[in-house]
Structure formats: structure tokens, C-alpha cells
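U., I forgot to send this yesterday:
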Amino acid sequence: MSEEDVFIGAIDQGTSSTRFIIYDGSAKPIGSHQVEFTQFYPQAGWVEHDPMEIVESVKVCVAKAMADGFNVDKNLKAIGLTNQRETTLVWSKSTGAPLYNAIVWMDARTTAICSRLEKELSGGKSHFVESCGLPISSYFSALKLLWLMENVDAVKEAIKKKDALFGTIDTWLIWQLTGGVNGGLHVTDVSNASRTMLMNLKTLDWDASTLKELGIPAEILPKIVSNAEVIGNVAAGWPFAGVPIAGCLGDQHAAMLGQACNKGEAKSTYGTGAFILLNTGDEIVKSNHGLLTTVAFKLGKEAKTSYALEGSVAIAGAAVQWLRDSVGMISSSKEIEELALQVESAGGVYFVPAFNGLFAPWWREDARGVCIGITRFTTKAHIARAVLESMAFQVNDVLDSMQKDMGKVESSDYLLRVDGGATVNNLLMQIQADLTGSPVIRPADIETTALGAAFAAGLAVGVWKEEYIFDSKVKMKDATVFHPVMAEEVRAKKMNSWCKAVTRSYDLADLTL
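Result:
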């Protein structure tokens, strides 16, 4: 059977849309479909999704992609899944009904719980870092689960009756895909589990002491598996019934695999947020500069675990969406590049998109968005450029922290791999190269998240080998490289001004009307 006769499917469930992509045996995408779903904002700082709408979006994407003239049914060897991480839900084991909307990763409703735990626990904000690599933050699933347990009667009752199942979106979808109430599998993978604050990084299992301290019952948690193994087969009623689900990774870990990041290599994914991961190999590196220690991937039951340092930026592309949907400055996201190109600089304007606080490396839940340096000279083009610069500044903050944690990397040897929808913006990529002072490399296929899920599934069923996935010639083929052109003196001044702007966003969460 030739490469063209073998197919792998990838479900890519993101923060605002779901995609299903079909790859042939050479890892070339041959068909896809994408569906957007609803974002709910019940209160300021709250963000929710309807879990059933997410399931329906997967059904629509799969059916549409497989019906678009691609005769892949018989030779579809496996399905890989990648998903928005940390987003949390609890559902009924007996009925399959969600007991509340999914609480999205960027939701900030748990700030009060975080503050309470920091005061109660002996280690404060860093109390669980030794076991899970993560600080206490509204970002992570454990805090969202605590909120559900404390505030939703249906969740309390289901836990009491031992009818509750907890999961992130990967767990929810795998349970649905493998049968739901009729024998659905309750599992998660090491990368998603590493983002809950509940998994021990060394044992790759739920940490008993953490569960005890937080009062979370172990029986509601899913089984943890590797990123590349046959988890189970798709149940009847789906277009690809009987096909094995053989790969599962959180979206940023999937992008690392799709970018074929070896030890010492970093990637930045630009989506709703921006997520920068540096592969540290089999070494668990503790950050002293505001980064997270996490799992990169584990490509098989018996495979070694690769770890990573991560910096998570809450608002990146979402700032462009805000300009479009809330401010009305642009009518489509792609217009921002043309608008920003009307000026040569942001004219002294700095935009800090701390809509729900700041993530790495600042970790300021009291921060809120600011736009400073505005004068009568300022136009919407300056603001548009400042928004693009804010994305690059935030990524650069994380990269600086990574270099401090890992040791200085010579710029001549260092390059940043980028992916995600926003990377089609050439101006943004050039700004990133200028602020980083190092080359930025954009692959020909920027949708590396889905590719990573496909790689994991294909690896598990023998379609690909690791040597092929990590082949440097393959991953550099047809890539675009952006080289820095900004003078070092200018770059240093801009970074200093940006840091001043960031401090201006602090202590604004309690502002009232």
C-alpha cells in the first residue's frame, strides 16, 4: 500500500472552533472542515462553552470532511485528537449530560479561590510546584473543578452519588467517541493531565497528597495514558466507527510535535493566546523566572517522557478579535496587517491586553488592559500596530525567561519556530523577529497542532516512525524565515518602554464603575 493509500484523521478542538483534517501517508493534508462554536461570557472575566455544542461541532466536521469526495473510509488507519487545554467540565456518568457549561482555560472566576488557597496553604502560590510544576492560578483545571464543586448543586449531588466524571475537553470527547453512557472510556493523556495541577510530573499519575489537600475525590478523575497508543475504537454512530483513537495531546504539545521540536528547541503558537514551549528533554527543569514546568510528550506506553518549559500568554489573537468584534476598528482579522502597515511604528503607543490578568512570566491576576502613550498624533493605525506589537512583546518576555532558566543561547544558533493562524501576518512575524533579535521560522503548513495529533496517532499504529517525524529536512522544507533588522539600541528602548507599560496594568482589577 502506498503513502497515498494510507490516511490518518486529526480532530483539532480549539478555543473558538473545531476542525477535522485528513492526512495521507506523507503527512500531507488532503481534506478538512472547520466549524466555529459559541463563546459565552456570563459575567466579566467568565468564559464558558456548551459541551454538547462542542460534540456536535466534531460530528459536523468529521461528516463534512469525509463526505467531500475523499474516499478514505477503508484506509483510515487511526484518529488523533488535540484540544484546548485546562478547560474543565463535569458530567453525569449515567445520563451523559453535562452538569454545567465547560469553564474555559482563560476564565478568571476562581481568583477568590486562588487567594484563599494561597493564604491557607503553607507554600502559598507555589505550594504545589514541587509535584506538578504549576503555581496556584485561575488558569488550571483544579481550581475550576473546585469552583464547580463549591458552587454547582448538580455537581455536588453527582459526586455524592458517585455519578460524576471530571475531564478536560479531550476526556469528554474520547468518552463520547467511544460510546458515552454505553461503555465510553474515561481517559486523559499525560500532556492534558499535566495542566490540571493534579498530576505528579515524576510519576505521571494523580498526586494523592494534592487531591487530599484540595478535597478532590480520585474516583471522578480519568485514567492517564501516553500521547501515542491505541486508546480505544470509535463507537457506532460516528462516520469513522471502528477506527482506533491512537493519539491524544493538548494543543500546545501537539504543536511541539508537529514542529518536531527536539531537546533545546522552542516553538510559539499564536492563537487566541500565545503559547511558547521549549523542549528540555527528559530533564524536569524548574523555572526561577515565571515559567511553567510541564510535560512535552510521551510517545508510547514505554517511551521516555520529554518535558518542557512553557510560557502561556492569555491574550494574543484574542486582542485582534476584540478590535474586530468589540471595538469595530476592523471588519476582519486579516485587515489589521494592512491597517498597521500604514504607519512605520506605533508612535509611542503601547497596548497591554491584560483583559483577565497577565500570565507568564508576570502572573498578575490583578492586571487589566491598558493602552498608553496616546496623543493627538495617534491614529487607529498606531493602535493596530501596538496590538500586533503586544503579541510579540509578550512572546519575547517568555523567551527571555527561557534563556535565563536554560542559560544564554547565542542568537546565531537560535531560531523560533512559529505556527497558528496569526502567523499568516507577515508584519507580525517581522516584528517578532525584530523584538526577539533572532530568526523566526514559519513552516509551509502553519496548522501544526492538528499535524502533531496525526503524527502521534500514526506513530502508534505504525504509519510513521519517530525518525521521519523529527527529520530536520522534512520540517524545514518550504519554510519562510524572518530575519531581524531592528537595531539593538532601538530594540532595547522598546523593551524598556514595554516593561513600563506592563507595570501600569497592575492593581486595576478592583476598579468600579
